[in-house]
Amino acid sequence: MSQMRPNIMDEDNSPAQFTDDKAVCIVSVKRMKNNWQKWSDNHQELQKHNPFSHDTRPVAVVPHRGHNDYGRPLQGSMTAQRGEDAHTHISREVQELYEVIKDIGVQANKDGGGSNISVEFGKLFEHYVTISNKLVGILLRARKQKLVDFEGEMLWQGKDDHVVITLL
Q1: pTM reported for the whole predicted model
Q2: What is the pLDDT confidence band of residue 22, given thresholds at 50, 70 and 90?
Q3: Which residues contact 141 (CB under 8 A, 6 or more apart)?
Q4: DSSP characters for 76-107?
């Protein structure tokens, strides 16, 4: 069995080296300690912003109800970016639905003399099913944006096939 012999440390505080016949082991306790402290400091800083952490109080001021930033992600955060991306995607889908209704709908004259394009939900569902499986959600979003109108709170396939959806 071979014996381990420590080398003398250099003046620049380089790590102690132990050599034997099988391997060279370099140990730097100071470096490990510094790495651990750096990780610990970073973790504590992250926990200050973690709403589920009870260890520390958040550094940032949390907006209260009624404030403009209440219920919104921090500006510039990944959450804010994902929200903007989702908003853009949904807006494209609403615009696509609007175009589909214009293409397959029929001109309907109202009593006031104006004319709007309308389509029955069943016909729209049959046509739109090849485009997206989120038709009802997109219709609700379009109604919230005052782009379409229809009766009822929710539309159900089969039951509401004759409900008229009108472009505004």
Answers
A1: 0.55
A2: very low
A3: 90, 94
A4: TSHHHHHHHHHHHHHHHHHHHHHHHHHHH-EE
